[in-house]
Specification:
3 strands; globular
């Protein structure tokens, strides 16, 4: 289908995993603000089953995400801002951001997970010049699964 030149200027190509394509169509078909993007990540995936593979993986991103999960289980079900997680873990915000990026790529490519085990919401920031930041939280069942995995030898 050919589009007039002015209409095609607003189009972009986005690569989407085939398994998630229908979700994208549903999102695009929903009124703004009512699509899947406005919903927090649920803990309905397999994360409640077994975290031992994360504990065993010693890549830096997994070790840092493990430290983040350790911080989150202490305050479950409350949420923690990324800068507070950084202070609690002794990592920098940049190290955590890098770890979250690496972790996300790894869980998708190596383990087939498409969602992180935490919810992430945007909220206020105490940092001057920063409009806001992400707050992370774990569902109770996910926090318990993480505790169990950490206790295993």
């Amino acid at each position: 289908m050919m589009l007039p030149p002015d209409a095609s200027d607003d189009l972009v190509t986005v690569q989407v995993p085939r398994s998630r394509l229908m979700e994208v169509y549903a999102l695009l078909g929903a009124p703004p603000g009512e699509g899947a993007a406005s919903k927090p990540v649920s803990s309905d995936s397999d994360w409640g089953e077994d975290f031992s593979w994360i504990v065993r993986d010693q890549r830096p991103s997994f070790v840092r995400v493990g430290a983040m999960l350790d911080a989150l289980v202490q305050i479950t079900p409350e949420s923690l801002a990324l800068d507070a997680i950084a202070k609690q873990t002794g990592l920098s915000v940049a190290e955590l951001r890098g770890a979250l990026t690496g972790f996300g790529r790894s869980i998708t490519s190596k383990y087939g997970e498409s969602e992180a085990p935490w919810t992430r919401t945007w909220g206020p920031s105490d940092t001057p010049g920063q409009d806001g930041q992400y707050y992370y939280a774990l569902a109770d069942d996910t926090a318990q699964a993480w505790r169990t995995a950490r206790e295993q030898p």
